[in-house]
Amino acid sequence: MIVLLAEDESHLATLIIDYLEAEGVECDYAPNGRIAMNLLKTSHYDAVILDIEMPYYDGFSVCEQLAALPFCPPVMFISARSELDDKLKAFSLGAVEYICKPFELAELLARLNIMIRVKQPANVNQFTLDTLTVDFGQRQICRSNRVITLSPKQWQLMTLLCHHSPNLVSKDHIMASLWPDQTDNIDKYKTLLNRLRHNLQRDGEPVLLHTHRGAGVVLK
After folding, report:
1. Rounded distance, CA 78 to CA 217, Å?
2. According to the UniProt entry, which residues carry 4-aspartylphosphate (predicted)?
């Protein structure tokens, strides 16, 4: 199981991550809503844990934007806000759980496990194109019965392209998603794209990764 925790209180985030990882749950961390959205666009998660009050995008905004993504994981809110209106707003946006701070970490894990038990549609966890299969749950890519090993950045790019396939993903969107806090990433972008293409393609196989000069990339 892999989850995304979006929480701007670093001390609380550390406590949650340490506890969950000790229980066998892999965690990615976002200290604000902008980084959370970048991760959600380029990675696949079994669940998302959101604080409400965060910089850039608050938890409600992140949850609302999640609905537009092809792969929408279940959402749990953790918040000091205990008012009924906040809970109802969270549920109206699609949240599955809402826990008020302070809470016991064991309760958070128990509720998280219940969320994960809800069976997701098969196409949420897998992408198939020609002889290519991407299993997001296992983080595994196969083509023509061979397993393809990708670097973390290649996996992020591949996930982003799968999310948007068969539509083109702009070069600017890719660079902003993969390197949100950096500029002048054109060389990194070109190198990453070439390495991903090399890993996916063997002689005689149909081309699946198409580059549109100056525009972006499409997987189709």
Report:
1. 37
2. 51
Is the pLDDT at 123 greater than 50, yes or no? no
Asked if 147 and 80 sit in the same domain, the reply is no
pLDDT value of residue 70: 65
Bridge partner residues of 78 (DSSP): 99
Number of structural domains in the chain: 2
DSSP 8-state secondary structure symbol assigned to residue 218: E
Q: Where is pLDDT greater, at 179 or 52?
A: 52
pLDDT score, position 105: 96
**Which pairs with CB-CB distance under 8 Å and at least 24 residues apart come from 109-114?**
109/19, 109/20, 109/23, 109/25, 111/76, 112/3, 112/20, 112/25, 112/47, 112/49, 112/76
Domain that holds residue 214: 126-219
Looking at residue 170, its amino acid is: S
Within this chain, do residues 132 and 213 fall inside the same structural domain, yes or no? yes
Given pLDDT bands bounded at 50, 70 and 90, which one contains residue 214?
confident
> Residue 218 pairs with which residues in a beta bridge?
210
- Average pLDDT, stretch 33-49? 89
Helix axes 10-22, 105-117, angle to 10 degrees: 60
170: which strand partners?
Answer: 216
35, 180 Cβ separation under 8 angstroms: yes
